[in-house]
TrEMBL record:
The keyword Transferase applies. GO terms for biological process: aromatic amino acid family biosynthetic process. Pfam families: DAHP_synth_2. The lineage of its organism: unclassified sequences, metagenomes, ecological metagenomes. Its EC number is 2.5.1.54. InterPro entries: Aldolase_TIM, DAHP_synth_2. This is 3-deoxy-7-phosphoheptulonate synthase. The keyword Transferase applies. It comes from marine metagenome. One of its GO terms (molecular function) is 3-deoxy-7-phosphoheptulonate synthase activity.
C-alpha cells in the first residue's frame, strides 16, 4: 500500500456506475451520521483475514466464497442467514478433508446491497426510469417513486449489515460451526439426495476422522 494512502484517498480515484447524489444535502447528513457509528468489522478481523488470504495465495489454503449477488431489505430473516452460513460450512468441511488444508470461508453477505449498472436508466414499455442500483440506493419496483435515489437507505443498509454480522458471530461462536454438527448435516444431505450418495465414501472417512479426534481429546469447535 502506498505511503500516500489515507482513509479518504479513495474519493479522488475515478469511479464509474455510481449513484448521482454527491450534491444532495441529505446524502451529506447521512454520511456524517454513519461516520460516527462503530465499524462493521474491526482491525483484528481484517488482519486475520489478510493473513489467511495470503496463506491461500501461497498455496497453503483454499478460499471458498458464497452469498447473494445482491442482498435485499425484504430478505432479512434469521433462518435465511443461518442457511447461507450452513451451506458454506458444509462445503468447507468436505474441502478441508479432501484438500488437507485450511479453508478460508468468505461470505458475500452483511453489506452486499449495491449493484453496478452500466446504464443510468432503464426503459420498459416506452417508460424510462433510473436503473435499480440495489436496495442501498433505490427500490427494484419499476415506478418513479421507487427508483428515486434515497440516501436514507444507507442508514438501513448499515443497520441491517450490523445485525447480520452480529447474528453470524453468534452462530460461529455459539457452537453452530462445530465440526460434528456440520458433518451431521452432510450425512443428512447424503441420506435425502440421490446425488449425495456419490459422497458417501468421503462422509464415512470424515466420520472416522472425527471419531479419532474425539478419542484423542481434540476439540471439534
Amino acid at each position: 500500500m502506498g505511503k500516500s494512502w489515507t482513509p479518504d484517498s479513495w474519493k479522488i480515484l475515478p469511479a464509474e456506475q455510481q449513484p448521482d447524489w454527491e450534491k444532495s444535502e441529505t446524502y451529506s447528513k447521512v454520511i456524517s451520521e454513519i461516520s460516527g457509528y462503530p465499524p462493521l468489522v474491526f482491525a483484528g478481523e481484517v488482519r486475520a483475514l489478510k493473513q489467511q488470504l495470503g496463506d491461500a495465495a501461497q498455496g497453503n489454503g483454499f478460499l471458498i466464497q458464497g452469498g447473494d449477488c445482491a442482498e435485499t431489505f425484504d430478505d432479512f430473516r434469521a433462518d435465511s442467514i443461518r442457511d447461507k452460513l450452513k451451506i458454506l460450512l458444509q462445503m468447507s468441511v468436505v474441502l478441508t478433508y479432501g484438500a488437507s488444508c485450511n479453508v478460508v470461508k468468505l461470505g458475500r453477505i452483511a453489506g452486499q446491497f449495491a449493484k453496478p449498472r452500466s446504464a443510468n436508466t432503464e426503459t420498459r414499455d416506452g417508460i424510462e426510469l433510473p436503473s435499480y442500483r440495489g436496495d442501498a440506493v433505490n427500490d427494484i419496483n419499476f415506478n418513479e417513486d421507487s427508483r428515486k435515489q434515497n440516501p436514507k437507505r444507507l442508514l438501513r443498509t448499515y443497520n441491517q449489515s450490523a445485525a447480520t454480522l452480529n447474528l453470524l458471530r453468534a452462530f460461529t461462536t455459539g457452537g453452530f460451526a462445530d465440526l460434528n454438527k456440520v458433518h451431521v448435516w452432510n450425512q443428512e444431505f447424503i441420506a435425502q439426495s440421490p446425488q449425495g450418495k456419490r459422497y458417501k465414501k468421503i462422509a464415512n472417512s470424515i466420520d472416522d476422522a472425527l471419531t479419532f479426534m474425539q478419542a484423542v481429546g481434540i476439540n471439534s469447535d
